[in-house]
Specification:
It contains four helices and 14 strands. It has 223 residues and is mainly β. It folds into two domains: 93 residues, Ribosomal Protein L25, Chain P (Beta Barrel), CATH 2.40.240; 81 residues, Beta Complex (RNA Polymerase Alpha Subunit, Chain A, domain 2), CATH 2.170.120. The longest helix has 9 residues.
Length: 223
């Protein structure tokens, strides 16, 4: 069974004034929604910073709270809003789960092995690092591994090539590319700046006076 982490939350009053006071006390306002009535809560900022990382992206949390309707609920951290300058968390959303109902989540794809195409002058390009799946909350994997060691130049790994465990339904299109070994293109020589800047041989120099007309031709004939 997927490991669960305990997370303590407290009740809070709504409103900008209360939220500002909580932030000054190193608390982060949040809300729990989903398989529970929407509940305004407050969380220690240290917990939000710790768990707002890729390592805990799909972690399950047991809520510990004096709020009767929230206590004991199992939640996912759905989103964390951060200040654009300080990067400090300013709000967190928790999604309460019904453990008997499937949930949609994005799962990291971890590539293993060294493609044989690298020795042939290829370069491994990762196109997608996650796929979307649907499964029961207790069956959410931490990640999905994919072996790319057999990829030669021009070969690609698609979603349909992934080894998916039973109980997981892949929602991402099977033809989507996960990674591809592409040939490295050689840089083409560019014309020198001097050649580009050189004026045409027949063009007059800039600012030069126009050639004078033939003096004889310009002199009127004597009568």
């Amino acid at each position: 069974m997927k490991q669960r982490l305990d997370l303590s939350v407290e009740a809070r009053e709504s409103g900008k004034h209360h939220s500002r006071a909580l932030r000054n006390a190193n608390k982060v306002p949040g809300v729990i929604y989903g398989a529970v009535e929407n509940t305004n809560v407050v969380v220690d900022i240290r917990d939000v910073v710790k768990y707002n990382t890729r390592a805990y992206e799909n972690a399950l949390f047991n809520i510990k709270s004096p709020i009767g309707s929230a206590n004991g609920k199992v939640v996912l951290i759905k989103s964390v809003d951060v200040h654009p300058l300080t990067r400090r968390p300013v709000h967190v959303d928790f999604f309460a789960l019904d453990l008997k109902k499937s949930v949609r989540v994005n799962i990291e794809i971890r590539l293993e092995g060294k493609p044989i195409g690298l020795a042939e002058g290829g370069l491994l390009n990762v196109v997608h690092r996650q796929i979307e799946i649907e499964c029961l909350p207790t069956e959410i994997p931490d990640f999905i591994t994919a072996d790319v060691s057999n990829l030669g130049v021009g070969d690609a790994l698609h979603v349909s090539d992934l080894n998916i465990a039973a109980g997981l339904k892949v929602l991402t299109r099977p033809e989507e590319t996960i990674a591809v070994v592409a040939i490295q293109e050689e840089e083409t020589a560019t014309p020198s700046a001097a050649a580009e800047a050189a004026p045409a041989a027949a063009a007059p120099a800039a600012g030069a006076a126009a050639p004078k007309a033939d003096a004889k031709a310009a002199t009127p004939a004597k009568k």
